[in-house]
Amino acid sequence: MTPVFTGEWKAGVVKHHKALVSSCVHSPILKKPTHPKGNLPTSRLRGIWHRHYIPSQRIYYEDNTQVLENFRGRTRLLGHLGQKNGTLEIKKIKDHDNGPFCFRIELAEIETDTSTTDKFSFVEDCVAFKMLPDPPKPKLNYPKTAIQGRPYTITCSVTHSCPSYNPELTWSKGTADEVIEVHKDIGSGYWEAESILTIIPEEKDDHTEITCTATFKGPRTSSGKLTLYVKRAESKGEK
Q1: How far apart, in Å, are the Cα atoms of 207 and each of 18, 113, 156, 204?
Q2: Where's the Ig-like domain (predicted)?
Q3: 10-132, which class in CATH?
Q4: Sign of the dihedral defined by the CA atoms of residues 49, 51, 55, 56, in that order
Q5: N or C: which end of the chain has fewer CB within 10 A?
Q6: What span, in angstroms and rounded, lies between the C-alpha atoms of 47 and 116?
Q7: pTM of the model
Q8: What residues does each domain of the chain span?
């Protein structure tokens, strides 16, 4: 019999993660799965996610019939184990999907071989989710005062854990031509959606409000706002 490689597989996951109820979450493998024997055949690698210390209660497996009914159709493995990527995606997050959940690798047996399947679960590096009932509020970054007739830039950003459904950022003022959108992977299973608005303020805009609204999967919304203070531009003859 082929030995079970306990302690020889090496990997690591994010131990604590935030997830917005009704949205989705990506739980990455931070330390990619490695084995001292080197490159093992991709065709024999099987990635599994299961409940803590209960390997039989699978929340992800390539054979969907062996997955807990509550998770069927809601989980998938992103990437390929051959590329050392075992990131888990859970869609339509429910408030009781808090885990902990653990990543497991199986090296499937060959039909012509009588050996058992080599298995190891990373039960010491499981992930637990903090369920967020409400979406995070966008953060606004902007100069304190705008100058009449001159470009004025406001940045609105919000973090999230679901790049499959990036939150949409919209403004109460401005047009699409005045907006630049950026999406960043900030690591550890989190991403940042950013919207940059540049406007030319007029005198009538003084003391008006500008709102940035983030719309998440669900849909769920949150917003941040600022009061615009517009200063009259000095003429060349003024000091």
Answers
A1: 36, 77, 19, 8
A2: 138-227
A3: mainly beta
A4: negative
A5: C
A6: 17
A7: 0.79
A8: 10-132, 139-231
